[in-house]
Amino acid sequence: MLPTEDSFLMTPPARTAVPSATASVTPAPTSMPTTTPTPALTPVPPALILADFPLALGATWKYAAEFSYQNPSDFSKLVTWSGSVTDKVVKVEIQPDGRIVFTIREDLEPIPPQGVWRQSRTVDYTLSGDGIFEAGLKIYQWPLSDKLTWTAIADSGYEINVEYIGSVHVPYGEMNSCYVFSLFTNPDDTHDTFCPGIGFVEHSYRHHGTPQDERFTLISYEPGR
What we know:
This protein is mainly beta. It contains one helix and twelve strands.
């Protein structure tokens, strides 16, 4: 759900996209975790990352979505598109160097007007080292902890900041041990709620130039195989 590297150059954003302790769909205490793990400096076993961020063939996340954008016929006004965004892992490949590439098809229904820069597409998430990348953007790092930060894009000066928030309620259910990932850049800011064992459950994005606001909320999730 986080914006791609291109969005820092004032071009349209892309997701996310869609996952430490595994989240469940039951109530949980809102107290902070008792330990704060140190971010991994070397590659970690993929199974640890995938326990948090359950990318697998066939895994599907469906979100209720709303986009507000500039009215093409009257730039002083905003119009709103409402619909659904479905992310499904349609292909998994292991590269010779050990990286794992998950191809995700993102479908928007109904088809948004051309004034909405986010459209149906296919995107690759790559598991490498201690995290997951969308192109040059690092969207997840293991292990998660409160106040964790990591470099969003190499040499960009932008960082993703993590805040532990505990329980989260969305239409899909109530989940525990969740975090918010925040990214602030020159043109935009993004906030994504991530619940280990499920993935991204909420997304909000705001562009500070040409108006474009996005909000996603998870309504269904199906594990892959």
